Amino acid sequence: MVTWTLLADYHGLHIAAPHVQAEPVGWEQSRPRANRIRVREHTCSCQRLIFELCTSGGLWFVRRISGEGPSEAVESAWLSARDARDLWVQILTGQAQ
């Protein structure tokens, strides 16, 4: 059983350095497409780039936020849950950037 103090110390995942042959992600400027977006997972805010795995309206996407702030957010294409989770793992392991 996980205690609340352990959860309070959780700060997010750290991504691996991009591989030399990492696949490029087609990032697009973030636009308001939905009233509610749920962040399912996120990377640590101690990094210059923060990534969030998000879902809304049955579709999933990855959002990338630069250190300059939320106004600089870009996002991947909106995908099925399986495809978005695959992209998320590729980003975390440095296979996509």
Q: Give average pLDDT, whole number.
A: 85
What is the quaternary state of this protein? single chain
Shape: globular
Distance between the termini: 35 Å
The SSE order reads HEEEEEH
Q: What would you report as the Rg, rounded to the nearest angstrom?
A: 14 Å
Unreliable segments of 5+ consecutive residues: none
Number of domains: 1
What structural keywords apply?
97 residues; alpha+beta; five-stranded antiparallel sheet; 2 helices; 5 strands
Question: Can you offer a commentary on this structure?
Answer:
It is a single chain. With 97 residues, this protein is an alpha+beta fold. It has one domain. The protein has 2 helices and 5 strands. It has a 5-stranded antiparallel β-sheet with strand order 1-5-4-3-2, covered by helices on one side. A hairpin with an 8-residue loop joins strand 4 and strand 5. The chain is globular, with a radius of gyration of 14 Å. The termini are far apart. The model has no long low-confidence stretch (mean pLDDT 85).
